[in-house]
Amino acid sequence: MSEVVPEPRQKPTVPAKPSCASISMGSQLLGYVGIDTIIEQMRKKTMKTGFDFNIMVVGQSGLGKSTLVNTLFKSQVSRKSSSWNREEKIPKTVEIKAVNHVIEEGGVKMKLTVIDTPGFGDQINNENCCDPIEKYINEQYEKFLKEEVNIARKKRIPDTRVHCCMYFISPTGHSLRPLDVEFMRHLSKVVNIIPVIAKSDTMTVEEKHDFKQRVRKELEINGIEFYPQKEFDEDMEDKAENDKIREMMPFAVVGSDKEYQVNGKRVLGRKTPWGVVEVENLNHCEFGLLRDFLIRSHLQDLKEVTHNIHYETYRAKRLNDNGGLPPVNNPDSEEQHESNL
Amino acid sequence: MVVGESGLGKSTLVNSLFLTDLYTDREIPSSEECIPQTLEIIKNAVDIEERGVKVKLTIVDTPGFGDALDNSDCWKPIAQYIDQQFEQYFRDESGLNRKNIQDNRVHCILYFISPYGHGLRPLDVEFMKAVHDKVNIVPIIAKADTLTPKEVMVMKQRIRDEIEQYGINIYQFPDCDSDEDEEFKQQDLALKNSIPFAVIGSNEMINENVARPIRGRAYPWGVAEVENKVHCDFSMLRNMLIQTHMQDLKDVTQEVHYENYRAQCIQSLTRIGTKDRSSRSKISRQSITELSLLPLAATEKLIQEKDEELRRMQEMLKMMQQQMQQSQGEQSDAL
């Protein structure tokens, strides 16, 4: 089974429900028992197994997707399309390219998969841009489902499902483009979408503010629920925290992998004739907020929402279509999936 | 004419170029309201006068270009508009009163290339190929404050290579005479090497933190000055468009693009009329009433148009006479 499920969500107070008047409510411990060491035990276990995280980046070419991913994870995990040669350039249809990396920090290993979507939104006719992406996401759910319903299934099912989809909004300063609305409307139902305003060093502070307001209003009008979704807030604390984050989204970011000297410090930034845009300076852009949100506070939650909600929705639909029975492992029809029977 | 996707700063640049506020109080519509399903063509005319020289400037805007999901053929309305202006001019030229022809032909298209891509997009290439034989194209890299100087250079080189690769005929600056002075030649060379121009536009004057009020964009990390040559090519574009090459743009439009159009037009006309070449030579000598008997479809059309011209002229004359009488009457009242 996936390693996500057995982990209990850590909350400071766990109020027992008053309706089930069981004996365990508020029993006093007479001495130190050592229950809290379970956290340490879990930590050791997960350190051994490691984490995996799959992030998909979607947006028109040139919006700085690869640079931003590289900046987020502070390593060269994505090959920039500006370094492609001429033949490789804008592909005629949307392609899906998944690249795996293992990054390690503080003894924790993370298998990071960055799924790039070159060709999205670059054609003259972009009506079917969303289809290859939706198909890919559903394929990953299908793979996981097949593995799950297998009789002899693996101890740890390889998780290739897309945990997070970062959608890059072009900073026009006006409003969302029809393509943006179309994409987010379709995909917010199958995957966690985090909208991001790309290359935000093109806007002044007022323009950024106005643009964000307009984008948020449009997202609301179109019924697009981006991550963190309101409906999945479990309690008041979550809601308060997530509300604060939702107020600030979409984050206006700038990415860079070059360092410059500013005031004696070396900072990541972009050097223009009129100043240096510092990536980690909160007055300049919201990269720091995005990174903290994505990696430092909600990384695990993204995976859980993907598993508990999006995947379950897909699974329920599939089982329903199949008449309540799990999909049969048919060795003739599926050429990619090896049958374990 | 300004063409480009919405949000690239076309209106701001137009305002900055001509130091006017053609687009004051512009409300930016949300994504449902705006983005018309088909491209619109909007004309804004401004009379600019500076030191006694009057210029009637017409700016043709094209909202809706490249904004829909499916942008195939979104350049067709623009190509049609350009052809229509040529046709109008052609008719006026063949008309009776040629002194007051209004020249509505498009002298120059400023094509806005998005700075976020890696050069030209498929839509850019398609558009430019559709209109490069009809009008002068001046490509511009919009919102150039997104790019660092190195990125600007890389992008310009890429765009120049792609323009050559796809065989797009953009407006070529004329070579200066060999007897011009060195400085002028240097300037000319610099100009040619700066295509496409990387521009920043701004409607706001920045007053704080600078020596004197300048047009620019204020960021937390500095002020991007619009008229500073190091920051962007805006001054170069403005000089080129208004001061040095305005007449050349008009000349090229007249001599090359219009003549191409005219040749095509006449060719298609003569193809219809080749059978009756003998009767054609009689047209100029015969009177109008006899001409109506000739069965040639093309010449009939021309004649009808001339009739309409006459009628229009007569109406205008009447109106002018009335106006004159009115003003004479007012003058006598004042006296």
UniProtKB/TrEMBL annotation, chain B:
Record-linked Pfam families: Septin (PF00735)
Gene3D superfamilies to which the protein is assigned, alphabetical: P-loop containing nucleotide triphosphate hydrolases
Coiled-coil region list: 296-330
Limits of the Septin-type G domain: 1-268
Database matches in CDD domains: CDC_Septin
Keyword line: Coiled coil, GTP-binding, Nucleotide-binding
The organism's place on the tree of life at top rank: Eukaryota
Homology family: Belongs to the TRAFAC class TrmE-Era-EngA-EngB-Septin-like GTPase superfamily. Septin GTPase family.
Name of protein: SEPT4 protein
Species this protein is from: Polypterus senegalus
Originating gene: Sept4_1
